[in-house]
Design goal:
The structure is a single chain. The protein contains 2 helices and no strands. By secondary structure, the chain is mainly α. It has a domain of 77 residues. The relative contact order is 0.05.
Length: 117
């Protein structure tokens, strides 16, 4: 997979956000109450959303990378096939030129023979 500076910065931002969120949840979770308060419930929802979003982003990036690789391979194959086709046509054209040249030489020789008689 291709990682550029934008992708790295994105992951750094996500990591920083996760660390800040974990710190806030750690500090907020120091109470004695076993009941979850609204802030803790919201924190859990945020954690879940971040995990799902990160997984979705990774999947999308993997699919994009695979699509780019497939496109590059297909382009390479198409180029190879085009080159092979061009080589074949060049061979056919060369043979046609050779035949035409031979016919022209024979014609010229025949005209020379007829003119010398």
């Amino acid at each position: 997979m291709i990682y550029n500076s934008t992708t790295r910065q994105f992951y750094r931002n996500i990591l920083g956000s996760l660390l800040c969120l974990a710190f806030i949840l750690l500090i907020g979770g120091c109470g004695d109450s076993s009941d979850k308060g609204p802030a803790e419930q919201a924190g859990e929802k945020i954690d879940k959303a971040i995990k799902e979003g990160t997984a979705s982003m990774k999947d999308a990036m993997d699919k994009t990378g695979s699509a780019v690789n497939d496109a590059a391979e297909n382009a390479g194959q198409m180029t190879k096939e085009a080159m092979e086709g061009a080589e074949k046509k060049m061979g056919e054209m060369s043979e046609a030129v050779k035949e035409t040249t031979e016919e022209a030489v024979k014609s010229a020789e025949k005209m020379v023979d007829e003119s010398t008689k």
